[in-house]
Amino acid sequence: MSNSAVGNRIAEAQQEESCRKRKDGTATATSVTVELEVLDCPVCFEPLRPPIFQSPRYVLWGISYVHPAVASSQILRNICHHCSRPSDYNRCHGIEKIIGSIQVPCSNTKYGCSMKTSYYEREDHETTCPHAPCFCPDTVCSFSGSTGMLQEHFTDEHKWPSTKFRYGWCFYTNIKEGIHVISGEDGQLFLLNVASEPFGCVISVFCVQPHDTDPKFRCALSLSYWKNGSYHAQSSEFQVPSMTLSDGLPRDCFLFIVPKFYLDEDSKICVTMKKASA
């Protein structure tokens, strides 16, 4: 059999398979490249999302279709935004099917997110994506990554001490200048920062999260100490602020002060992390 004949038989088989899939409804996946901006509404430039409407005067994709926020306008409901002639908008199911079939990866793929969504749902997903980046607070370090990547970076690259805790259970840590990495049993990442001041030490605790949320955690710090025949005790409980650390560690968010008089080399503070609802 000649090469041309073999080629023709292969082409016929492929055509038959394509027809079969069209008849039985079996989808065929393929890869295409498209600029996502062409899928935006030509009036308000927001991503198109079902239901999508189209002027019956125009059938060319990309010329005269709008999403419901625009179609609901009294003006656009009666006047085609392309030609300015009177027109009623009808549901465009063909474009809706195309739009719904386009899947795009989350922009946080490099940080570990494997989620794919329809292109008009990507922004909604990324506002809550747990893999969105946070940042290393070290002023000479430009590292960014998911909280899991950050925790590994803190302990491996900066050698910051690390403690894993259970919510509602206390643990002790040295009162020494610098950052202490603490992580919950659920993997939630926190930083405890101790800074020296002329009057003693100031301590703050931060929850490292990629999105602004209402405080979900509380922290209780306590210190008790015998010195020169006198007993000193102090404690404080506060909501833990959440942040991405994009601007480094805040310098005006200290929540616990230890007077210099009560500080020794082996001074320790008791830390108890709680969920806000607990």
From TrEMBL:
Record bears the keyword Acyltransferase: no
Keyword entries, A-Z: Metal-binding, Zinc, Zinc-finger
Organism superkingdom: Eukaryota
SUPFAM superfamilies referenced in this protein's UniProt entry, alphabetically: TRAF domain-like
Gene Ontology MF annotations: zinc ion binding
The SIAH-type domain, residue ranges: 101-159
InterPro entries: E3_ubiquitin-ligase_SINA (IPR052088), Znf_RING/FYVE/PHD (IPR013083), Znf_SIAH (IPR013010)
Protein name per Swiss-Prot or TrEMBL: SIAH-type domain-containing protein
